[in-house]
Structure formats: structure tokens, C-alpha cells
Amino acid sequence: MTITLRHFRAGALPDDHRQTLIAVHSDAYQDQADDPFVQRFPWFAQHWTNLPGYSCVMAFDGAEPVGFSYGAPTEPGREWWRQHLVPEPAETSTFAVSEVMVRPAWRKQGIAEQTHEALLADRPEALAVLYVDVTHPRVQAMYEQWKYEKVGEHRPFEDAPLYAVMVRSLR
């Protein structure tokens, strides 16, 4: 197995990019396919890929997409995580990491960390932020190993899980 990484950016996405995200997600969450929140991923994929500054690093095993990490810069003044930081940092430009996932057959090989680190490499923002479902402490511990710190908890909308808010300095 040889894993290669490809970077995709807003304004230069292949026509099948969203469909590839959805296919990888479908495999990654096949055991939760009946969950209404999981079923909304196509909407999230469309939302994120339409954001200015959207960026995605996708891992391939040959021609097979096996995982990805993606996100986009937050709009100044819309950093929802600020309420959790006391004192607030002087520099608050933020890159929001929306998804990090790997298909089951390729897990436990470091692919998630590879795509994540490639996604954040050379970002101009001061901080990266992401959510982790509080019912997944092992995932939270993984992000802590990747230099994130839990700064609070947040439920972004009524039917969303309760999330740990995690922040990482990029400088």
C-alpha cells in the first residue's frame, strides 16, 4: 500500500469532489447509516465546499480515496469558540477543521494525522479549531496528542451532539 495525498482548494475542485467526500463518509459511517445526523453529511459537504478558502487534503491508496481532512477559515468576528478562551488570544484568525475521517479498512495507519497535518501546514491563521463529540473520549485524546486543547463544550444547533471545543495554535 502506498498512500498519496492530494490537496484540493476552493475554486479548483474536480466535478466529483463532493461525491467522493460523500462516498468516503458513507463507508466511514456505515455502522451509523440510520442516524439522522449522519444522513445530513451531503448537506455539510455542500456547505463546506462552497465556503471561501475551503481546503481539503485527501489520501489515496492508488486511485482509491481512503480518507480526508477538510475545513475553511472562519469569518472575522464569527469565531464561535472565543467565549471559551480566557483570556482571549491577541491573534484570533482561525481555520475551522470540519472533518477528519478515514475509511475502516485503512484506519490505524496514521492516515488521519497525515491528512490533518498536511491540511494545516502553512496555514496563515493563528489558530485551528474543531469539534469532537463528547461521547468519543478516544478521539478527543487523539486530538490532544495533535496539540489541541479542550476549551469548552458547545451544541451548535438543536439536534447536534454536544461537542468538546478544541483549539490549537498554528504558530
In short:
The chain has 171 residues and is of the alpha+beta class.
Structural class: alpha+beta
Q: Multimeric state of these chains?
A: single chain
Q: Give, in spatial order, the strands making up the sheet with the most strands.
A: 1-2-3-4-5-7-6
Molecular shape: globular
The mean pLDDT is 93
Estimated radius of gyration: 16 Å
Strand content: 25-35%
Element-level helix/strand string: EHHHEEEHEHEE
Beta strand count: 7
Distance from N terminus to C terminus (CA atoms, Å) equals 33 Å
Helix content: 25-40%
* Residue runs with pLDDT of under 50 for 5 or more positions: none
Main beta-sheet strand count, sense and barrel state: 7 strands, mixed
Number of helices: 5
What does this structure look like?
The chain has about 170 residues and is an alpha+beta fold. It has 5 helices and 7 strands, in the order βαααβββαβαββ. It has helices spanning about 15-30, 35-40, 40-50, 110-120, 135-145, and strands at about 5-10, 55-60, 65-75, 95-100, 125-135, 150-155, 165-170. A 7-stranded mixed sheet has the order 1-2-3-4-5-7-6, with helices on both faces. α1 runs antiparallel to α3 (about 40-50). The protein starts with a strand and ends with a strand.
